[in-house]
Amino acid sequence: MFASISSVALALGIGHLASGLTRPNASPYLAVGNTAIDLTPEPVKQFAIRQFGESNKLVLLGGMGLVILLLAVIAGLLSRRTATPGLAVIGAFGVAGVVAASLRRDLTVLDALPAVAALVSGLGAFGWLHRLASRSTTAHRTDDGTATEGADRDDAREDAREDAREDARDDVATAATTSATSRRTFVLAAAGVTAVAGGAAVGGRFLTSRSGVDAARTEIGRRIPPNPPVPRGADFASLGTPSFITPNRAFYRVDTALSVPTIRLDDWRLRIHGMVDKELILGFDDLITRRVEQRTVTLTCVSNQVGGDYVSTATFTGVPIRDLLDEVGVRSGAEQVFSTSVDGYTAGTPLDVLREADRGALLAYGMNGEALPVEHGFPVRMVTPGLYGYLSATKWLVDMELTTFDKQTYWEERGWAERAPIKTQSRIDRPQPFQKFPAGAFTIAGVAWAQPTAIDTVEVRVDGGPWQQADLATEVNEQTWRMWRAELEFTPGGHDIECRATDKSGYTQQARRVPPVPDGATGWHSIFCTAT
Ligand SMILES: Nc1nc2c(c(=O)[nH]1)N[C@H]1C(S)=C(S)[C@@H](COP(=O)(O)O)O[C@H]1N2
Ligand SMILES: [Mo]
Known about the structure:
This protein is of the alpha+beta class. The protein folds into three domains: 2-207, no CATH class; 219-414, Oxidoreductase, molybdopterin-binding domain (Sulfite Oxidase, Chain A, domain 2), CATH 3.90.420.10; 425-531, Immunoglobulin-like (Sandwich). 39% of the residues lie in helices and 21% in strands.
């Protein structure tokens, strides 16, 4: 039992340490906890929040601790004879950790590494300790065996009675020593494993808090105003469209870096230079003393396929980029802001867009009422409404150089366009492809976007029939998506549903499918479903 408990402790400790080296959210313990939260039905969650208030997370983590301890005890009890059942329990638990870590929406597959490290170290330690433990019990049995053997020998060889007695005594003594030694070895080993577990956990904590990002985010979070209320009727979430505001942890993510950069707030500097009158270097405190704006923006990825979900909406808080450009003084001939992330990623945002009076491009440090999450660019990122993210939304921003378009960016070097305004798009969210639903009246629903122009109408049609206008949700602003719904009649059988949007410039989406490269996909989203 000592073997299984200390092995499980080691697994958790190593997992925590490994996540301290990569990123805190990847700690298997937290990943399992977060997944548990996600899987909890909403009413239960509400109950837990009512019951335990702010400490409901602590209650969850504590409860998990008890469950894990219980599992460790069970693993120990099952493994009296062979290590296999214990290994199976620990293995299953570890695999759950790995799966939880890799399934989290805000984690990449690489973030499962801490859980894998935990699994491997847990299994290894248990196998090893179990072997030591069984060696000490085998030694016990040898005690008795040798004593009997000694007695046999007594009977068999009278002459050598004295010698045999000596032998037997020696054997018993040796066996006793072996037993004591191997038990001591086991206890020392198990204690060692537990100590390493503790050390690893403390080390992981140290690494996490050394970066101080959690504390810094909490501190900054206090300065971020809450989101303005979403107007009534801005989404049809009850019909299966996304909620108007995307919660931060559900917000889509596109990263070229394998692990998320962690920047210490005190180390963060932003340099604005190049074709400017006066170069500027800002620390975080310098930045936030400037005029701040709050903007609700739908971000979209150029690599989004027709019907894809690389599109999300958040309210960002930050300093208008236009203000900073005025401050540094843009020299004539400058065409783009060439931005660089701490991870080396680069993007080029056209200056004419950034300088537009109502565009609302921000150096954002707040997202949906909290500090910018690490995954979304902590401490500061760019957000430019109306342009695809790859050339306008650099995360972990550290450098802005005013240049001409000659300077090539990360994605331009890989064949993507230099300029890429967002293309008018629409998507069907309900029904889902191949969904079956009862024939008769059925409401289909979805989302459309056309930043910065805004959506004017959305039309739908079934089986190539006449286009019918959908009802639109309340418009929040031109830089955000707009949900739509339409109640249609479906005869029994298979049906093709298509949708198309028209934006306020009068442009209507065309049928022809265009792939994402080089400047964004277009075409009508169409799905097949069955009315029964
Ligand atoms: N440093 C950095 N910034 C980046 C990216 C990246 O890979 N690295 N991806 C860009 C792309 S392609 C998009 S669509 C948006 C996505 O922002 P999100 O991950 O916060 O949704 O960030 C942009 N900024
Ligand atoms: Mo993107």
